[in-house]
Amino acid sequence: MRKQQSLPTGSGAVYDIHKMKKQLSLPVSNSEIAAQQAKFQSRKKGDADFITAYELLPEPNPDVELVFFHGLQVDDSIRQYAFWRTWKMKNSEDCWPETLLPEMLTDRSKPPIKARVLSISYEGRMKLMENEDDGDRVDDDVLIAQDLINRLILDSDLKVGQTKGVPVFLVGHDLGGILIKRFVMTLEAQMIGTIVEEEKRKIRSFLENLKSVFFYATPHSGSPAIEKMASQIDEEEANDMLQLMKVLSTETSRINAKFQQYRRGDTHSKVSRFTSHALHAAYETNEGGFSHSVVVPEGSARCDVDSFYSVSANHFGVCQAEGTFSTTVRLLSDRIKQEVWTAKGVRAW
């Protein structure tokens, strides 16, 4: 665990979305990025209306299932890479959920833990293309959540969370964390409202297997830096989900309250339905259009979590692992081991 740090407020920071685009544009000709992209494209599990699921780490008989959600993206030039490149190693293009995580789930005294890892691609661009009309826009978090239910759970292909004793982990970066909350709350509502017994059984199975949610630099109470940057985009071109990133957003507050109420279960219960963990980017961000800014303030990153960690990284680096010692992946792998070994009746430590 990193020590808590006294952080600057970043009130004098400058935000430039045009600079942001220039800094984060990826060289498509880069052979390493192109090779990784081609590999993961071959693992695409089909397109839905609002999302695309990729299997970063296939495993037919997993001990644990993980689903990753990227965050906001600047424009179309980086959108196509976000589902895997958000979670790359700090000094290479290796995607750590595919490479480093399996290594860290191996214990000399216990059988290795087999992980199945999926990642979701969705419309996360801050600014949508000018020629996109309302009929083609897919930046509605409610519709994305419904698509997630259909694709991940109800369809006969992916079937996430359908094996008893196989825990499910959801992992999200900034906006991805808020989408996870919306997804879980939509699941709860559909569980109550559906009259199709088979759908209800699948949703119940997923919710029973959901054991942990990890939030990487998620602004549960909004982000002044992101809100400032969003103000530079014409309203008609702005992603509708930017409303969820506003400071003290009414809709996000409602999502937070319902998520917390569901997670904690019955008021008389001392055990939550699943655990919640937050990783806060403690360092200022000087890339992606941000200048000397802590993109997500500590107070906004803290919201109904069982554990909170300040990581020595900026808003983007918090998702990038350096090695087996990295807090970015160590906290997640430790929690996976604890949940899997508990499910198998093995002493954790």
UniProtKB/TrEMBL annotation:
SUPFAM superfamilies: alpha/beta-Hydrolases. Keywords: Endoplasmic reticulum, Membrane, Mitochondrion. It is found in: Endoplasmic reticulum; Membrane; Mitochondrion. It comes from Riccia sorocarpa. InterPro entries: AB_hydrolase_fold (IPR029058), SERAC1 (IPR052374). Its main location: endoplasmic reticulum. GO terms for cellular component: endoplasmic reticulum; membrane; mitochondrion. It comes from the Eukaryota. PANTHER family: PROTEIN SERAC1. This is DUF676 domain-containing protein.
